[in-house]
Write a structure and sequence with these properties.
Helix content is about 45%, strand content about 20%. By secondary structure, it is of the alpha+beta class. The protein has 2 domains: about 90 residues, Arc Repressor Mutant, subunit A (Orthogonal Bundle); about 170 residues, Regulatory factor, effector binding domain (Multidrug-efflux Transporter 1 Regulator Bmrr, Chain A, Alpha-Beta Barrel). Helix 2 crosses helix 3 and helix 4 crosses helix 6.
């Protein structure tokens, strides 16, 4: 218990000084430990190195400030990152994904109170059920539109926003399924062309189109996009009642980007897009779907 109390005190001190320079030597001195011993204790209690935790905590606070519409460079400098590029590099190292993607899927909430148990829970997120597999490229045909995050309301509104779009396109998607009868019955939602500076993204919702339907004419007003193949981490949402479905998707994205990916040996492959995959499990009194995250081994560009 003594060690947990020491680390808890250090976590609170880090938050008090979150915008300033935080040195491990100062934290160790406050605990009356040597720097080496403090590092070992912090790692033992939380499962993460103290320097990595400090960087991640600064990034969590900075992300919340960005969600308020502040300029990236202004926030980056405020939290000790000298440039926009430096902030983005630090974020990718800490979370394994670019900040624009994280902001799109993880709610903009004030960082939770620093506590030993919460740090430990994030470390234990490796227990999420995931399949790492190679996916062959395939095409989707559907509807695309350009949006700004402020126009959605705020980042945490995006799951509800997706639901609204899906309802609007429901009849059109049924028509597309009737058009491409020989293709697998699935729907795919993908966000791409994320503009970090302008907080813009393109959203596309479509149906899978297989080679058997390659000669079928494309309907007016629709777009075709190729989902690239390669290595993906695949996460399945829990099967839940319809009124909990959108929230379950939102929660799973948050766990993937906020907890699993940062602790895994993988990073988000920005050369490809992640996507949501809906099939026959998406229909009925309860529903679930899959989230496909393009990954590569860390350090392999």
């Amino acid at each position: 218990m003594e060690y947990e109390a020491v680390v808890q005190s250090a976590l609170e001190e880090i938050d008090r000084r979150i915008k300033g320079d935080i040195y491990v030597e100062d934290l160790a001195r406050a605990a009356h430990y040597s720097t080496h011993h403090f590092r070992r204790v912090f790692m033992r209690v939380t499962g993460t190195p103290v320097v990595s935790y400090i960087t991640r905590r600064k990034l969590e606070h900075a992300l919340y400030e960005l969600s308020k519409g502040r300029r990236i460079l202004e926030v980056a400098v405020e939290y000790g990152f000298e440039t926009h590029a430096g902030f983005t590099r630090a974020f990718k190292r800490a979370f394994g994904s670019p900040p624009s993607l994280y902001c799109l899927h993880v709610p903009a909430c004030p960082p939770e109170r620093a506590a030993v148990y919460s740090v430990r829970l994030k470390q234990e997120a490796m227990n999420m059920q995931v399949q790492i597999k190679e996916i062959q490229p395939f095409d989707i045909v559907g509807y695309a539109s350009r949006h700004r995050l402020p126009g959605v309301g705020n980042i945490s509104d995006i799951p509800g926003y997706w639901e609204k779009i899906n309802l609007e396109y429901g009849a059109a998607l049924t028509t597309l399924h009737d058009t491409y009868r020989q293709s697998r019955h699935c729907e795919v939602a993908v966000c791409f062309d994320l503009d970090e500076r302008q907080a813009c993204f393109t959203y596309m919702l479509g149906v899978g189109v297989d080679g058997a339907d390659a000669a079928v004419p494309q309907r007016p007003g629709t777009y075709r996009r190729r989902i690239q193949g390669g290595l993906y981490a695949v996460f399945t949402t829990p099967r839940v009642a319809e009124d909990q479905y959108v929230q379950s998707i939102h929660d799973t994205w948050g766990q993937v980007l906020g907890s699993w990916l940062p602790q895994s040996g993988y990073e988000y492959d920005e050369a490809r897009e992640g996507y949501e995959y809906y099939d026959e499990r998406d229909h009925g009194e309860t529903a679930q779907m899959d989230i496909y995250v393009p990954v590569r081994k860390r350090g392999k560009a």
